[in-house]
Specification:
By secondary structure, the chain is α/β, with parallel strands linked by helices. Among the domains are: 3-137, DNA repair protein MutS, domain I (MutS, DNA mismatch repair protein, domain I), CATH 3.40.1170; 328-440 and 578-605, MutS, DNA mismatch repair protein, Chain A, domain 3 (Orthogonal Bundle); 473-565, MutS, DNA mismatch repair protein, Chain A, domain 3, CATH 1.10.1420.10; 607-810, Rossmann fold; 813-841, no CATH class; 883-917. It has 31 helices and 28 strands.
Length: 918
């Protein structure tokens, strides 16, 4: 397969890094036999950096060496220096035991790496060892678990089609055998699905320059690889997929959608081309349709902070970090999938709710389930590694241990009485793991019986197979273990034969075992002794018997390592043979993990099971924001009641001051819908959720300088997207529409958008705004309801009650909030003066004149008698006095009756006030 590799360019495919096109020796230089082998393999893989195995190192030559040394900071040297400048070859290398970290850095930069291994044992071959590429590592095809996020997929995807016909999109996670495909009717839908799958690498046919440029603008960090013509235009895509289309209805769907079929065939062929020595673990292709799930586009996922925060793109602080209490990595990946793909089937949602409720109601069962799950490894990725031929002894130990605890997990789950058999795709059996045969216990027993508990990640020195697995292996171990006893016996016999009492058999690395005799006894050395070395006071000898015994021990150890390797390969192949069944079992275990995690969070956080139906009503009593609540002090979050009814209270117009919690309120309703439709419980005292087909959000402000879009343009683009695609079954969350432009423009746009949502779209909507003029919509539009987040002013300070009340707010308390933010008092005082002037305006009188701020006066002259004008703000600015203190002083003065004070009392009162001021 020929591809063009692209990495993290700033924008557009042309800026992405490319692997060297080939390697050519310098003119006039005659390459050695080894270099001829390298050049042949490199020419067959021109698009990848070639890591060429030489003993304990992977070496790079020519252009690859120059590139890798620059990218990874490795010392660049040369081969065949004695041939002169024309014959020397640039070279660098990395140790084979540390290659994983170097591969990770290369793929992060967007490069493909071809791993070329020795295919023969160098000890058994005379001349050049046969070598070949066994796999190709790309940004989307990584098998080393330490370079992967254990709780996120690692997808490589392919696209087929165009805007006129729609697009087919297919993606594969090689590590878990997750192979899925869908249809994206528009370019916008295609971008949404690429983001939802979090695709690491995208393969595109050559010539798709406009689509490539568009994708690179939106996702600049996505690696893009170009397919060759042969792999772009597959003659019979359906035949390419024949092994993965198990159902006739599924096959018919692919026959009707050629773009879907071609995209699936492209990504499958691409991934197969990276695994040259092993079959893929993929066993089925899952077709999913966007309409089967609640559609949450990229904009809504970002605004609701489902998987990462908007500020800093961190996992901590996102909904996923709060809700994901899974005990296994495979459960974590499935939880993420359920969160991003909530269901739209009432019956399927209720089945998941039944399972969660059963675990909520049975704490002892739930605790034992979660304890057992904590003993499991990542069965999905471990099985995938075995199928791909890269599993280690430690991996097989983890598989054996994980499988061996599944009967206990099954027994614990049998204590739940509810009928919880799964039928919806992705339910994975819910709380049933399968029958005894499906738990793969014979394989588990063989793995546990065969491998030592402390088996490592290498097979080089053996020692990972238990005694008793192979009689031949036990015999070889006995020979190796008894080697020193045999040496001692030889030493005793030779002393008796020669009569030399100080004869000793010793060992060194130069020539293994030897017999050492002091000079005073050299006359008694037998003729069959062969001298090996002379030292200061002795001579060292070897005998035929000693040499034969050494050879026997050495061969025994080599045969032991080889025999252990045979046992290991047999067991790894046994796991690979059962890969399909193991992956299905892992999916069922992951589903149990997700359901138990949702039950744990529901129990600990006081979440309630929502009533799910086909109505167009959303009703929440004492609803809370799950993330904000988790960050608040116990009892610090103020819950609120919210009701949306498409026939009566379709649009809630939410007003109130800044910082009062309007944005939190409207987002928590959307999060409740997501949590409910994924099958979980929601943070409320009571909840009823009428199914939604899509969630739309317009929250926050931000520009997109890379696309040349201002803050207001971004806001309007997102709003236009909502108005074009929302349906009566959608939920719309709008926050501060129109604030990126002038006041009158903003009010006009916000009013028109609200009217359109009410009159035309008829979707359930929450509209938070500071434009109090919009409250008039409640008088003219029957399904608009005005609510406000309560706040009160006390002694010049604003107090946020965070409680939703009926009716619109008349003030935003913006100046008061500005004071809380730390604006200087003189600025606050001036703002209050200007605000009072603006509040006197009538709708048709135009702006009222506002007195300019008083300019600072010069210092009084020596003979000037006129006092300066008093300041035009009500109280003197004092950096150390709060309004509360000043108000208390005013109250004190107002209570004083001068007519009743004696001179002494007046002085005392004045002194009291002076002390408070100082």
């Amino acid at each position: 397969m020929t591809v063009e590799s692209a990495g993290q360019g700033a924008s557009g495919a042309s800026t992405a890094p490319r692997a060297p096109a080939g390697a050519t020796p310098e003119p006039g230089a005659a390459p050695t036999a080894l270099m001829r082998q390298y050049l042949e393999i490199k020419d067959a893989n021109p698009d990848a950096v070639l890591f060429f195995r030489l003993g304990d190192f992977y070496e790079m030559f020519y252009e690859d060496a120059i590139l890798v040394s620059r990218l990874l900071g490795i010392t660049l040297t040369s081969r065949d220096k004695n041939r002169g400048p024309e014959g020397s070859v640039p070279m660098c290398g990395v140790p084979h035991h540390a290659v994983r970290s170097y591969l990770a850095r290369m793929t992060e930069l967007g490069y493909r790496v071809a791993l070329c291994e020795q295919l023969e044992d160098p000890k058994l071959v005379k001349g050049i060892v046969k070598r070949g590429v066994v796999r190709i590592v790309t940004p989307g095809v990584i098998l080393d678990e330490e370079n992967l996020d254990p709780r996120a997929p690692n997808f490589v995807a392919a696209i087929a089609g165009e805007a006129r016909t729609g697009f087919g999109l297919a993606f594969i996670d090689v590590t878990t055998a997750d192979f899925r495909a869908t249809i994206a009717p528009t370019r916008e839908a295609l971008m949404d699905e690429l983001a939802r799958a979090d695709v690491r690498e995208l393969v595109l046919p050559r010539g798709e320059d406009s689509l490539t440029a568009h994708i690179k603008r939106i996702y600049p960090r996505m690696a893009i690889s170009r397919l060759s013509v042969e792999d772009s235009e597959i003659a019979d895509p359906l035949a390419e997929l024949s092994d993965f289309l198990s159902e006739q209805t599924q096959r018919a769907a692919f026959e009707r959608n050629p773009e879907l079929t071609l995209a699936s065939a492209r990504v499958l062929r691409y991934v197969r081309g990276t695994q040259l020595a092993s079959p893929l673990p993929v066993h089925r292709l899952e077709l999913f349709l966007r309409d089967d799930y609640l559609v949450i586009d990229e904009q809504a996922r970002a605004h609701l902070e489902l998987t990462e925060t908007m500020l800093g793109a961190r996992r901590d602080g996102a909904l996923l970090s709060v809700l994901d209490a899974t005990a296994t990595a495979m459960g974590g990946r499935l939880f993420r999938r359920w969160l991003l793909f909530p269901l739209r089937d009432v019956a399927a949602i209720r089945r998941r709710q039944d399972a969660v409720a059963a675990l909520v109601d049975n704490q002892s069962v739930r605790d034992e389930v979660r304890r057992t799950l904590g003993e499991l490894g990542d069965l999905e990725r471990l099985t995938g590694r075995a199928r791909l031929g890269v599993a280690t002894p430690r991996d097989l130990v983890a598989i054996g241990r994980s499988l061996s605890v599944l009967p206990d997990l099954q027994h614990t789950l049998s204590g739940l009485s509810a009928d919880l058999s799964g039928e919806h795709p992705g339910d994975a059996g819910l709380l049933r793991l399968g029958n005894a045969e499906q738990l793969e216990q014979p394989l588990a027993d063989e793995l546990v019986r065969s491998f030592a508990d402390d088996a490592g990640n290498t097979t080089k020195d053996g020692g990972y197979i238990r005694d008793g697995v192979s009689a031949d292996l036990d015999e070889l171990r006995a020979i190796a273990a008894g080697g020193r006893d045999g040496i001692s016996a030889i030493e005793t016999r030779e002393r008796a034969r020669t009569g030399i009492p100080w004869l000793k058999v010793k060992f060194n690395n130069a020539f293994d075992d030897y017999i050492e005799i002091t000079r005073s006894h050299l006359a008694n050395v037998p003729e069959d002794y062969r001298r090996k070395q002379t030292v200061a006071n002795a001579e060292r000898f070897v005998t035929p018997e000693l040499g034969e015994y050494e050879e026997k021990i050495r061969n025994a150890d080599d045969r032991r390592v080889a025999l252990e390797l045979e046992v290991f390969h047999r067991l790894r192949d046994a796991v690979a043979t059962r890969a399909t069944a193991l992956l299905q079992l892992a999916g069922r275990v992951a589903a149990v993990d997700v359901l138990a995690a949702m039950a744990e969070k529901a129990h600990r956080n006081g979440y309630v099971r929502p009533e799910i139906d086909d109505s167009r009503i959303i009703e929440l009593e004492d609803s809370r924001h799950p993330v904000v609540e988790s960050l608040s002090a116990a009892g610090g979050f103020v819950p609120n009641d919210v009701k949306l009814d498409a026939d009566a209270e379709q649009l809630l117009l939410v007003t109130g001051p800044n910082m009062a919690g309007k944005s939190t309120l409207i987002r928590q309703v959307a999060l409740a819908v997501v949590m409910a439709q994924m099958g979980g419980f929601v943070p409320a005292r009571r909840a009823r959720i009428g199914l939604c087909d899509r969630i739309f959000t317009r929250v926050g402000a931000g520009d997109n300088l890379a696309r040349g879009e201002s803050t207001f343009l971004v806001e309007m683009r997102e709003t236009a997207h909502i108005l074009r695609h929302a349906t009566p079954r959608s939920l719309i969350v709008l926050d501060e529409i129109g604030r990126g432009t002038s006041t009158y423009d903003g009010v006009s746009i916000a009013w028109a958008v609200a009217e359109h949502v009410h009159d035309e779209v008829r979707a359930r909507a929450l509209f938070a705004t500071h434009y109090h003029e919009l409250c008039a919509l409640g008088e003219t539009h029957p399904r608009v309801r005005n609510v406000s987040v309560a706040a009160r002013e006390w002694k010049g300070e604003v107090v946020f009650l965070r409680k939703l009340t009926a009716g619109g707010a008349s003030r935003s308390f913006g100046v008061e909030v500005a004071r809380l933010a730390g604006l200087p008092d003189v600025v606050i005082a001036r703002a209050q003066q200007i605000l009072r002037g603006l509040e006197t305006l009538g709708p048709a009188t135009g702006p009222a004149p506002v007195a300019p701020a008083a300019k600072p006066r010069a210092q009084l002259g020596l003979f000037e008698t006129r006092l300066p004008d008093p300041p035009n703000h009500p109280l003197p600015a004092h950096p150390e006095l709060s309004n509360e203190v000043l108000c208390a002083l005013v109250e004190t003065l107002l209570k004083v009756d001068p007519d009743t004070l004696s001179p002494r009392d007046a002085w005392a009162k004045l002194d009291e006030i002076r002390k408070k001021l100082t």
